């Protein structure tokens, strides 16, 4: 057992973890932050993306112990301080960028990291960036559209409701 | 401005807020006090005789609470097939038992033969690895053709064959179809494979069971598209737990696409385990387990012949298919390749002769069952590929050959040569719309531009029709279904006027929490925010059959309408009393009950209040309360149809196919929420494009699943697909359900694969590869390149 402490969504947390416990499991099982989802066991689906020290990270690729001292943000920490949806979340709702919602936390976290790096990404840049996030429901159309809208681009010419 | 509420509007989805903030509650998010964890020991071999299973070491491992093997379940029932198919000779299908845990034999890689329950998942995993199973590996059968040969190894020894059934549809049409083909001026023959797919809902299957020794009540939280069906199967067939002692809850479910329709052994195991250890038991599949054990989809090997006149008029379609059912019969596996496939083999066409033969084959692979579209994508692909090939052979424009053969708008209702009665449609209008959407006139210029860049451009089109909104119970009963396929809804108006609607349908991405209130509020003339939907919990909802086969709105939505009508009718009685008028004079509109021809009225809310505070109430005529239930059994399937077009670029140096544009014109009848409908189409298109270009489930000759992870199974990613152009303005409302709606959930996946393949063939032909008339899906760079260079 290893002692870990980190900041998650602005709160300091600490606990004992087994060395083999992944950050994704620690968030879900120990902290009960179940918005971070597990969709695969080969680090490819992106349902578990969180931010660690400001960078998008697949939480299943990292041991909880490796996050010692880190600032972690999960989907639960993304809304505006008053609880309303932030710009990206709102754009996902406005443009129907989610259906079952399972990939959604990872998509939002990836989108936030993308817009941090690239304030106005093109369609191709968005599609390229989302290479590590699989969605089985939406066909990506409305996800890409939502991210473009969240970055302030006019999406009215893109087909679809 | 689009409307923002009511029928035909696209209000924001109310479920989104919880999903976007991480507050969805999926099965694996539920943590029950004292829960233990289950891990399964699964076969590494595809076919083997279990000679012994030694669990003694595992039982002694830290944290282990119980170990189960197949021996523990020999006295309980098997997981049954929901549909009985009879062979052409009248013999019923072969139906070997599907046990909770394999007993005596393992039949596919991943077949579970034991399970460990322990304090933690890690402990359970460690202990599962300590189980010593002696399994005598036998030769496996993977290929269907080989499985049907004399002397092939048997998946189920007790049935003496690997053939589950040999079905003909319609048997009486066989001779006429053979004759028509023999005498036809032109016959196009195509042999093709409809590739095996893994549904891959992003949320892996999971089940948590709880048992209350005080009451004897069980609760099962599970990733299900149809909690009542799951309960029925567990109660009536597998464990025998009385239905009124078993509550099945399917909370938020992260996609299903068919794979979560079925009852799986893991659900029964956690229930049995929870009772045995007296604590909740939780299990969640890893993605690898999902690949190995979720029911797969498609997997047909088909020969189709199209006989036609020289002018392209269709005379007959004859299809011979082998359909893989895998190692065990999953619940709908026998209906999928038969009644969901063979009955669609006339397509959108007024062709006089159709005959379909399907042989279902057991193999040492995971069970195969309905996956988004279920049988109808297989039908559409076969038809629309062979039609494209015939058009090319005859030098007829691919849209024209289809137009020439369409059932015409004035022919509805139309009984197709494959036996379905299409209620309505206008296929020509869909093709016209499609042409408008795709700028067909500009195609040649785009092709030239591609050629300048060293690329080949192709345009592929197809139409489709499908039968969904399953299904009329009387009809399916005659055809062998062992269940009815109605659905149910309860509309509960509370005293304060807000409403809870309990529905049998289940939402796992479809947005029912938003769309159903649009219907109820629209009918009652009230704010849709005062309507809440309750679904997914057998202890709260009426007995419904759940969501699959694009049935939620067409079937359950109709039940919602009927129940709401009953509420209005009862409200009229109450209002008549309140207004001191005769019931026959009461009219209801815009949320008000009024006396015809007067200005006297009473609001819906006042009537609701009166129903629950029945002072001065005509108790001898009307019961208190305002709550109504309706069961709705559809009179027919609904028949959505569409015309799709795909434009691709092929890189002749690498064989890589890039989809440049994709257009889908669909007729879903009336549309309740256009935003959600478009989203459903988008998702289906990506799955169809995935099937056409990327996805392939591969077993090696020993039955090892080679494509068992996202490293090996190519899921469509954001950069594999374009923005789609979708349209559902061509609307011929369904004639037999109250909303005039047709199912939209599967259309995209049904309609899209042929146009992708047709486009690639068109591109290659334009580049002078006139010998390439077909390539089997998925059209990977290597397959395309090899075809070009063969
Ligand atoms: S769970 Fe982390 S990438 Fe799939
Ligand atoms: S919304 Fe279901 S997987 Fe993306």
Quick rundown:
The complex is a heterodimer of chains A (161) and B (790). With 161 residues, chain A is of the alpha+beta class.
Describe what this molecule looks like in 3D:
The complex is a heterodimer of chains A (161) and B (790). Chain A has 161 residues and is of the alpha+beta class. Chain A folds into two domains: 2-77, Beta-grasp domain (Ubiquitin-like (UB roll), Roll), CATH 3.10.20.30; 87-155, Orthogonal Bundle (DNA polymerase, domain 1), CATH 1.10.150.120. Helix content of chain A is 29%, strand content 16%. Chain A has five helices and five strands, in the order E-E-H-E-E-E-H-H-H-H. Chain A has helices at 23-30, 87-94, 104-117, 123-129, 141-150, and strands at 2-8, 11-17, 49-52, 55-58, 71-73. Chain A has a five-stranded mixed sheet with strand order 2-1-5-3-4, with helices on both faces. The longest helix of chain A is centred in the last third of the chain and has 14 residues, at 104-117. The radius of gyration of chain A is 16 Å and the shape is elongated. The termini of chain A are far apart. With 790 residues, chain B is α+β, with helices and mostly antiparallel strands. Chain B has three domains: 18-138 and 202-255 and 260-293, Alpha-Beta Complex (Aldehyde Oxidoreductase, domain 3); 375-467 and 637-788, Aldehyde Oxidoreductase, domain 4 (2-Layer Sandwich), CATH 3.30.365.10; 486-632, 2-Layer Sandwich (Aldehyde Oxidoreductase, domain 4). Chain B is built from 19 helices and 28 strands. Chain B has a seven-stranded mixed sheet with strand order 3-5-1-12-9-10-11, sandwiched between helices. A five-stranded mixed sheet of chain B has the order 7-15-14-13-8, sandwiched between helices. In chain B, a hairpin with a 5-residue loop joins strand 23 and strand 24 (601-603). In chain B, helix 9 (376-394) runs parallel beside helix 18 and helix 14 (512-524) runs parallel beside helix 15. The longest helix of chain B is centred in the C-terminal third of the chain and has 28 residues, at 552-579. Chain B is globular, with a radius of gyration of 27 Å. The structure holds FE2/S2 (inorganic) cluster (2 copies). One FE2/S2 (inorganic) cluster (FES) binds at residues 38-40, 43-48, 58, 60 of chain A. One FE2/S2 (inorganic) cluster (FES) sits between chains A (98-104, 135-138) and B (202, 254-255, 509).
């Amino acid at each position: 057992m290893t002692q870990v402490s980190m900041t998650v969504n602005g709160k300091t947390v600490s606990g004992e973890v087994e060395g083999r416990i992944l950050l994704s499991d620690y968030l879900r099982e120990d902290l009960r932050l179940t918005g971070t989802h597990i969709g695969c066991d080969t680090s490819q689906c992106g349902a578990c993306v969180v931010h660690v020290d400001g960078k998008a990270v697949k939480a299943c690729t990292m041991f909880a112990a490796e996050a010692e001292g880190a600032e972690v943000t999960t989907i639960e920490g993304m809304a505006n301080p008053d609880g309303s949806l932030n710009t990206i979340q709102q754009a996902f709702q406005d443009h129907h960028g989610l259906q079952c919602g399972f990939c959604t936390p990872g998509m939002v976290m990836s989108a936030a990291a993308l817009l941090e790096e690239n304030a106005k990404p093109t369609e191709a840049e968005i599609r390229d960036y989302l290479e590590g996030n699989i969605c089985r429901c939406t066909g990506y159309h409305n996800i890409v559209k939502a991210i473009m809208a969240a970055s302030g681009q006019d999406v009215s010419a893109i087909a679809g409701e | 401005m689009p409307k923002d509420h009511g029928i035909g509007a696209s209000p924001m989805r109310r479920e989104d807020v919880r999903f976007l903030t991480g507050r969805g509650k999926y099965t694996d998010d539920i943590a029950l006090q004292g829960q233990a964890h289950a891990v399964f020991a699964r076969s590494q071999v595809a076919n083997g005789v279990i000679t012994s299973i030694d669990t003694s070491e595992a039982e002694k491992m830290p944290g282990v609470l119980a170990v189960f093997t197949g021996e523990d379940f020999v006295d309980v029932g098997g997981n049954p097939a929901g549909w009985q198919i009879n062979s052409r000779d009248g013999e019923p299908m072969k139906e070997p038992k599907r046990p909770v845990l394999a007993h005596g034999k393992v039949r596919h890689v991943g077949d579970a033969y034991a399970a460990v329950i322990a304090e933690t998942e890690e402990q359970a995993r460690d202990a599962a690895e300590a189980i010593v199973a002696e399994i005598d590996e036998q030769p496996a059968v993977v290929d269907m053709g080989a499985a049907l040969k004399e002397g092939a190894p048997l998946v189920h020894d007790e049935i003496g064959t690997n053939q589950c059934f040999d079905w003909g549809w319609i048997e009486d049409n066989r001779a006429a179809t053979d004759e028509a083909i023999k005498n036809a001026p032109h016959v196009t023959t195509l042999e093709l494979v409809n590739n095996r797919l893994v549904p891959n809902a992003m949320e892996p299957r999971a089940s948590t069971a709880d048992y209350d020794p005080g009451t004897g009540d069980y609760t099962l939280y599970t990733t299900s598209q149809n909690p009542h069906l799951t309960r029925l199967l567990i109660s009536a067939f597998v464990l025998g737990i009385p239905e009124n002692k078993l509550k099945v809850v399917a909370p938020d479910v992260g996609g299903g696409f068919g794979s979560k329709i079925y009852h799986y052994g893991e659900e029964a195991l956690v229930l049995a385990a929870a009772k045995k250890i007296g604590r909740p038991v939780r299990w969640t599949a890893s993605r690898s387990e999902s690949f190995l054990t979720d029911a797969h989809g498609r997997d047909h090997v088909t020969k189709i012949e199209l006989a036609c006149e020289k002018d392209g008029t269709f005379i007959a379609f004859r299809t011979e298919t082998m359909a893989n059912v895998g190692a065990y019969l999953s619940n709908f596996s026998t209906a999928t390749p038969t009644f969901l496939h063979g009955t669609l083999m006339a397509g959108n066409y007024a062709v006089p002769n159709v005959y379909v033969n399907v042989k279902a084959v057991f193999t040492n692979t995971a069970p195969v069952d309905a996956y988004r579209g279920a049988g109808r994508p297989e039908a559409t692909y076969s038809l629309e590929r062979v039609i494209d090939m015939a058009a090319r052979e005859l030098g007829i424009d691919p849209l024209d050959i289809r137009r020439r053969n369409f059932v015409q708008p004035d022919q509805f209702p139309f009984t197709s040569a494959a036996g379905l009665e299409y209620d309505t449609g206008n296929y020509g209008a869909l093709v016209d719309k499609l042409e408008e959407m795709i700028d067909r006139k500009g195609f040649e210029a785009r092709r030239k531009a591609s050629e300048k860049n060293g690329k080949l451009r192709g345009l592929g089109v197809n139409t489709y029709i499908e039968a969904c909104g399953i299904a009329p119970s009387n009809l399916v009963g005659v055809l062998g279904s062992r269940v009815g396929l109605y659905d149910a809804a309860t509309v509960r108006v509370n005293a304060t006027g807000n409403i809870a609607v309990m529905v049998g349908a289940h939402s796992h991405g479809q947005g029912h929490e938003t769309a159903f209130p649009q219907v109820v509020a629209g009918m009652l003339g009230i704010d849709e925010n005062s309507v809440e939907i309750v679904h997914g919990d057998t202890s709260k909802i009426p007995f419904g059959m759940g969501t699959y086969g694009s049935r939620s709105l067409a079937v359950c939505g109709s039940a919602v309408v009927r129940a709401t009508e009953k509420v209005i009718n009862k409200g009229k009685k109450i209002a008549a009393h309140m207004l001191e008028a005769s019931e026959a004079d009461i009219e209801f509109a815009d949320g008000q009950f009024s006396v015809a021809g007067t200005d006297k009225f009473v609001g819906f809310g006042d009537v609701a209040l009166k129903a629950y505070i029945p002072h001065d109430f005509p108790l001898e005529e009307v019961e208190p309360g305002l709550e109504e239930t309706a069961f709705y059994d559809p009179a027919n399937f609904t028949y959505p149809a569409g015309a799709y077009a795909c434009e691709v670029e092929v890189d002749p140096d690498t064989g890589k196919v890039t989809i440049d544009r994709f257009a889908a014109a669909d007729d879903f009848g009336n549309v309740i929420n256009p935003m959600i409908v478009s989203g459903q189409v988008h998702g289906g298109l990506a799955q169809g494009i995935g099937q056409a270009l990327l996805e392939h489930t591969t077993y090696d000759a020993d039955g090892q699943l080679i494509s068992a992870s996202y490293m090996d199974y190519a899921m469509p990613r954001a950069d594999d697909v374009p923005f789609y152009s979708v349209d559902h303005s061509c609307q011929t409302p369904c004639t037999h359900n109250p909303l005039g709606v047709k199912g939209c959930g599967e259309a995209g996946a049904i309609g899209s694969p042929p146009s992708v393949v047709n486009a690639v063939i068109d591109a290659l032909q334009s580049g002078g590869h006139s010998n390439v008339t077909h390539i089997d899906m998925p059209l990977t760079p290597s397959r395309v390149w090899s075809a070009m260079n063969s």
